[in-house]
Amino acid sequence: MWQDLTEIIATLITEYQKLKKLGEEKRAVLAAVDLKALEKIVHQEETIIEQINKAETKRQDVINQLAKQYVTIKPDMAMQDVWGQCTDGQMRNLLERSHKTLEDVVKKVQALQENNEIMISAALSVINFKLNQLGGTTAEPSYGQSGQEKYTHEKNLDLEV
What is the distance between the alpha carbons of residues 50 and 30, in angstroms, rounded to a whole number? Predict the structure, then answer.
């Protein structure tokens, strides 16, 4: 069982590293506002997230099986408490190192996701600005009756052609 847990954690590390690499690519694509490339990356991310969810389900199954075998292991225990129950010292050290690596890569992925959210917001603002430019929408220097901004729209295209 401990070996299974080690293999699942190794799979999670690999998948999160793939997600980290895609997050870095996504940042460059967002900076360039390349929507086609962004769509491709999002599709790849969805595939990786499915694999992570499958591996996480397997990890929970193994923890539940270990909980049945070992009286002191509970399914909701912290991982350091779980691997502390492993009687094989070498396996316990391997589990500890693997889990630490997994924690590190997950933190990096989370930081990338937060940064990319900022980039997405900025990209959407750029797109909105461009659409307003194309449509001839401008904000008036004064506010409307209910305190909302007033917008004017120019007629840039003659639709009667």
Answer: 23
Question: What is the C-alpha separation between 9 and 32, in angstroms, rounded?
Answer: 35
- Residue located via tokens 């929970």: 60
Q: What is the pLDDT of residue 35?
A: 80
What is the mean pLDDT of the segment spanning 116-129? 78
Burial class (CB in 10 A: 0-12, 13-18, 19+), 108: middle
Spatial contact of 151 and 140, defined as CB atoms under 8 Å apart:
yes
| Alpha-carbon separation of residue 92 from 2, 6, 12, 82, 86 (angstroms) | 9, 10, 18, 9, 6
* Residues facing residue 108 across a β-bridge: none
Under DSSP, the state recorded for 138 is E
